[in-house]
Write a structure and sequence with these properties.
The chain has 7 helices and no strands. By secondary structure, the chain is an all-alpha fold.
Length: 126
């Protein structure tokens, strides 16, 4: 059975890989494993060892702690179905949302701020 934290960490690996525009094959090559293993990590089917997570963090240029952002443990560890995992993690598992975020950050900063303000105004108008 998949542990909720393994699933969350896998989603964060996938999210970061997409954000930097890297394929599973490219990440696997950088880490020195087969792309099928990356697939298993990203789905939470296989747990990522500490040393492998370290290698992945270097390849994706983020601190190891990045993969655990959004996870909160209850007093007795992870609390089952809720798992203390932020709904933002679920949103970022969506391909369309990731494409939107990647495109947003590709816009020059001054135009990005204007777009952000437009989105804020439009969302309040609804």
């Amino acid at each position: 059975m998949k542990h909720p934290v393994d699933v969350h960490v896998g989603k964060r690996v996938r999210h970061r890989r997409w954000m930097v525009g890297m394929t599973q094959q490219q990440l696997a090559t950088k880490v020195g494993i087969k792309f099928q293993q990356i697939q298993k990590y990203e789905t939470g089917m296989n747990r990522i060892s500490a040393s492998r997570l370290w290698d992945i963090s270097l390849a994706l240029d983020v601190p190891v702690a990045y993969f655990f952002e959004g996870v909160e443990a209850g007093e007795d560890g992870v609390d089952g179905a809720a798992a203390g995992i932020s709904p933002v993690g679920d949103l970022l598992a969506d391909k369309e949302a990731l494409d939107l975020v990647r495109s947003y950050y590709a816009i020059p900063e001054n135009q990005r701020r204007q777009l952000f303000e437009l989105a804020r105004v439009l969302s309040n108008a609804a």
